[in-house]
Amino acid sequence: MYYYFLKKDIIALEKKINEVLEETKEAGKKIGESCEVGADTWHDNFDYEEAVRQMSMVSSHLKQLTNIRNKAKVISPNKSNDKVSIGKTAVCLVDGQEIAYTIGSYIILKDKANEQSNQKIISYISPIAKLLIHHSVGEICEGLIGKNNKKFKIISIS
After folding, report:
1. H or E segment at 143?
2. Can you point out the beta strands (E) in 26-138?
3. pTM, entire model
4. With 80 as the cut, is the pLDDT of residue 117 above it?
5. According to the 3-state scheme, what is the secondary structure of the chain?
6. For the segment 10-66, what is each residue's pLDDT rounded down to a tens digit?
7. pLDDT of residue 46
């Protein structure tokens, strides 16, 4: 099984992995420092116990991200705008409102460009994306989103 990523998102994932790796190194450093301070009382050493907890959480996160990266496949958006697919933006009429959904990678990591955009970038594994993918302009996609039945009329694809 592959996890599909657009090029910009795989770069963001690799950057995140490097950040978490640095957090792991910092947690290891704190473990060492806390041992020096309370070497005789490690079992009552709050700093040590907290650093070990932090190391456990960060290591788990690093392992998860690395596993995803190892199974990642970089893809390019389809050049055709005839169907909704990864990398495409579908403008839909939902409950009387036009909403643009950009179908993104397996993981959408927040960055400044994403935060400033009014566009809704959603993972291809999200319930809305699963409804829209493989459909064309004019089609109505209907399904459960949470506990609500929703209809999405695709107005345009770009």
Report:
1. strand 140-145
2. 72-75, 89-94, 97-104, 120-123
3. 0.80
4. no
5. CCEEEEHHHHHHHHHHHHHHHHHHHHHHHHHHHHHHHCHHHHHHCHHHHHHHHHHHHHHHHHHHHHHHHHCEEEECCCCCCCCCCCCCEEEEEECCEEEEEEEECCCCCCCHHHHHCCCEEEECCCHHHHHHCCCCCCCEEEEEECCEEEEEEEEEEC
6. 999 999 999 999 999 888 888 777 776 555 555 567 778 888 888 899 999 999 999
7. 76
> What average pLDDT does the chain have?
88
Does residue 158 register a pLDDT over 90? yes
Give the pLDDT score at 124.
96
**CATH 3.40.718.10 assigned to 77-157:** no
3-class SS shares of the chain: helix, strand, coil, % to 5: 45, 25, 25
Residue pair 127/145 in contact (Cβ under 8 Å)? The answer is yes
The whole-angstrom separation of Cα 153 and Cα 62 is: 40
In the chain, what are the domain boundaries?
3-74, 77-157
Separation in Å, CA 50 to CA 37, 57, 64: 14, 11, 21
